[in-house]
């Protein structure tokens, strides 16, 4: 082993891969800041990554052509509701499975594990048919409600709670706290990591939701960002600068959140690999 | 304050393990009762049953004469100190102490008063705003005690509260616990696996083995009059030596350890007439290690190993035991003075026959 | 399961678990059973024909539909190409980053960044990257690395390049996710194993084959499983980049399903397709369990 060259070699490899990985992002950012006409023309050389003569025209255009703020708020609202309600609902269920003794516990937990492997895609058509029958199409509700209960989240909470020291709950019971009181006063404050993990995983999987909104929404007023950029992309005239500006604005909020809470994101994702 | 009673309590776990069998024990009001035994003997289960953390399978539990089988933990008027303290990590010491009082829905001023009192009593006042992880082991232990005390319960339950502390601190807090218990006069049930702790703490000790109560009584009484070989071997450090014993009618001798010691049994019979029932039969005799002395008239044994403690030494030797099912073959003598003995040497050991304890072949003491 | 807390708490437990259980039942279990039931009918929205039980007729029709067969094949090709490529790439990156020297956190951030990009945005950006003509970024890049021997193509409208273009897009977006999981797996390998191996005289390469890979086995199996399932669920990029074309060259099972159920209102047919998708997922999961179980028996 040539130890002297080992580290420089690793750096070189990382740098090479890093350039390949970052170039689409750099291209997007640079393209969003230059006049429309030059985006395609300059895509073939180094100028693709260099916005000479920076302009915010594209960003202004986006707001002039579509109601970007509306889409953003839609996305934030829908995801906020899914994550928030999901944390409550799934953690309560996870706790009931992990710590309470009740009739049907084993059977129902088996069911939760079973539905864990059914992907949305496998039920999209009948689900769509069902919500059409009750007239839920084109609402916020239809984009939120089906995704609150999540078998994988329940499972993650379950595995976390079962690993918590039981003495804390026993102490709380002797101190006179009931199950719900124990849950909210004792368990919740000591389970921040699993809540962060589930929040991030839910957010990551829902923020890009495309198939379901495509199926159930038709009006602009309730559509989320991922669908909006696809529509914007096919909206004539085709102006790449505007599209890239749209993209940058769309990814910016989550990118900021990601950079701020990076440690939690990485830990959360790494968690998916730890399964039974 | 209240007395506590277990009446023929069984605990059988879901998977079928019998943790406690026909357990009966009466703890008097204001008493410090120590439950002691090897791990898995059921002592913790007994405590958890009383706390209401496990349900009784059969039998009755009474606190202050009131049947509490169906009573939830918070209505049993008890407080518990856990082995690892179970302090709420996200709360300050003050909040930890307040929590049980808030659950009792006491007035703000009453809560503040009780917390101040407990903090003062346990010298926690300076620590009230800290979180458990900022505290040392001994401080955490005191907070756990405090959280139990603020409730002013009828009974304290303590589940090996000192086992996470180092030896020196353990002795110190042991004295503290005795002081607090005596001054408050609250009935206390204390679980430990450490017989030294049991001997020093308990007004009375209850010794358990394999889910069954072996003997209850004041420490000295248990030490002096063990009800069976288990108690005899369990108490004392090291425990009692057990030999096989036979009363030989022809020679008039009590033969110990396959005849290593031969002692005229007439004086023994005079003191303990019931022994005559075991003439020529299988029997066991026990002798505490400190009862041995070296003398030229004793039986000759070979030293197997020596542990010197400075002021005294423990001499291990093998004496054969012909009773089946007794695995304790290595015996030990506690001899005063520095270790003058070496492995492989022969020494002669004798003892005062009056100090012998007698048991049936099954291990029960002969009255 | 471990021993639960003492008393039976049917009511509290029902109260706590009901919202999640009802949700899973209503929005997962029931639609799933519904999908199975629908797949045996002829349901078509707006159709004048009466609802009929058709048995396996839908399945027979689906498998004699060249577009669907092509879609299934495309998914398979996607799996065969993307899963190994992406896993190896993720493993290489994880190995490169699994050491403590300056900059590893930065690189980890960089490789993970595409994961937070919504797939639809990724697809749109890559449509631009795959722009036809010598000025297109991908064309120009290939021209550069092939030293000028590359003929510019219209990737997304080329029967041979449409699917590979989507594959590349997916690899760019998904590698970071796998990398992080593998990195966690690598960091879980006890350092003593490497120390012991080094003392036993194993070089870096031997350590990789005899320590790293076996220790990482379960993580790798998991990563492969997840990527394979994701590959069969492929839809967003197809919808945005190629619309399945040209001539079904890049169509997928999910794209065909949406086409059938929405563009042509053939709900029953779409349902049958999703049932097939589910069976594939089930098969993959079962395979993974088997492989993982074997491993447990060995150790």
UniProtKB/TrEMBL annotation, chain C:
Keywords: Cell membrane, Membrane, Transmembrane, Transmembrane helix, Transport
SUPFAM superfamilies: MetI-like (SSF161098)
TM spans (from-to): 12-40, 76-97, 109-131, 160-184, 216-235, 267-287
InterPro entries in UniProt: ABC_transporter_permease, MetI-like, MetI-like_sf
Subcellular location(s) per record: Cell membrane
Superkingdom, taxonomy of origin: Bacteria
Membrane topology label: Multi-pass membrane protein
GO-annotated biological processes: transmembrane transport
Gene3D superfamilies: MetI-like (1.10.3720.10)
Entry-linked CDD domains: TM_PBP2 (cd06261)
GO cellular component annotations of the record: plasma membrane
Domain ABC transmembrane type-1 per the UniProt entry, residue ranges: 72-288
Family membership noted in the UniProt record: Belongs to the binding-protein-dependent transport system permease family.
Protein name, UniProt field: Sugar ABC transporter permease
Species whose genome carries this gene: Candidatus Thiodiazotropha lotti
